[in-house]
Amino acid sequence: MSQPAVECVWPLGAELGEGPVWIAAEQAIYFVDIKAPAIHRLSVADGGRTSWPAPDQVGFIVPARGEGFICGVRGGLHRFDPASGAFHPDPRRRARTAGQSDQ
Questions:
Q1: In sequence order, which ranges of 33-79 are alpha helices (DSSP H)?
Q2: Which of 2, 25, 44, 90 has an alpha carbon 20 to 30 Å from 65's alpha carbon atom?
Q3: Dist CA 21 CA 30 (whole Å)
């Protein structure tokens, strides 16, 4: 059985790339580089590549209802708008670390 050829489509050099998310409507994959910190997008349709710096280490990105994404940025959740590259913290959605409570 032959192995399929592997090809690097973006030699980004991410420090700690994680959390790929496929967005079918865009034919694109989004992922984070936790240590950079940054969010990256690769369009499979046209090979376009876009990167946005994050305000702090970002651990994940998931599609939000409507448009944009929710990102886990150190210290809390942020809404991310790829059209503008803006991150908006959500003070109601503060992330907890081990040992913390709501009190």
A1: none
A2: 44
A3: 5
> 87 is in which domain, residue-wise?
17-93
Tell me the two tokens of residue 18: 């994680």
Strands 76-81 and 58-63: unpaired
C-alpha–C-alpha distance, residues 38 and 75, integer Å: 16
Report how far residue 79's alpha carbon sits from residue 86's, in angstroms, rounded to the nearest whole number. Answer: 8
Residue 8 lies in a domain: no
42 within a domain of the structure (yes/no): yes
Q: What is the DSSP letter of 66?
A: S
CATH number, position 77: 2.40.10
Give the SS3 label for residue 81.
strand
How many contiguous H segments (helices) and E segments (strands) does the chain have?
A: 0, 8
Distance CA 32, CA 40 (A): 6
Q: Looking at the whole model, is its pTM more than 0.85?
A: no
Predicted local distance difference test score (pLDDT) of residue 95: 52
Structure tokens, 11: 């030699």
